Amino acid sequence: MFDFKPGFPLQSSPLVNCITNQISIEMIANSLLYVGAKPIMAAHIEEQDEVIQAVDALFINLARLPHNEATHLVHAAKRANSHKKRVVVDLVGYGVSQFRNSIGDALVDLKPAVVKGNMSEMRAFCKLKSHGRGVDAGEEDTKADRLEELIDALKDKTLEHENTVFLATGPVDIIVSKDHVVKLSNGVEYNGQFTGTGDTVGALIAANLGSGLHPVDACINGVSYFNICGEVAAEKSRGLNEFRFHLLNELSLLKDTDWTKEVKGEYV
Question: Coiled-coil regions in this chain (predicted)?
């Protein structure tokens, strides 16, 4: 059996501030509620200090960077550091523009607990050739040789950021810390075929951090729990709309089962 510390059901009801795009706000908020966490979506710079003091973790998503709001993300991460609150940074769209890259780099420089993205986003972050299109990963970037190349590059990143865990999602999900490399292989193709799925995984990871889990365990739980929900949902569904309904429903149900036995993973 794959060895990790289970996070679901949550041992507390962590309050998670999610600074994300408007498209996925409702999905993220409900997903956190379904697993027993509490969401708040407080993005304005004027309230960040008070909000960060109150929450248990912070999730920052690069998906939407409207005028004047990019600095709010960096300010929130700085306040989280000041109050010793753990941060998850999702490098959505990294590689699309130099502006987006600069904000992502500034957030990573603040040493968040977890930095995540899909295979193409994380390859771009590591200055490897990336075949991403917008916010979607390119199929070429998920091949086995590219996976090993990315693992080596992320290992180098841990030399600069020894307290940060890096997560790259894809057909095989990889987690890289200074001490561990983990490969996870649950999930179904439907998981990535509607908007907000990656955002939800990031929020689930933040909930686990807010409950006190080590960042590696938080990543294993967030990714595997979501992907196994997808596996269960796929068996009940005909088409993407039905799948989305069952996937979100399983977020509230799977935690009451012995779901950890279904995790497909290995330390490498």
Answer: 137-164
Q: How far apart are CA 122 and CA 230, in angstroms?
A: 23
CB 254 within 8 A of CB 229: yes
Segment (H or E) for 114? strand 114-118
Helix 70-82 vs helix 98-109: crossing angle, to nearest 10:
10
Write the pLDDT tens digit of every residue in 106-164.
Answer: 999 999 999 999 999 999 999 998 877 766 776 777 788 889 999 999 999 999 999 99
264: helix, strand or coil = coil
Structure confidence by residue, pLDDT tens digits, 199-241: 999 999 999 999 999 999 999 999 999 999 999 999 999 999 9
**CA gap 198, 31 in Å, rounded:** 12
**Per-residue exposure over 16-36, b if at least 16 CB sit within 10 Å of its own CB, e if not:** bbbbbbeebbebbbebbebbb
CA 243 to chain CA mean position, Å: 21
**Helix residue spans in 111-239 (DSSP H):** 119-125, 144-160, 197-210, 215-236
Per the structure block, which two tokens stand in for 12?
A: 């507390």
pTM, to two decimals? 0.96
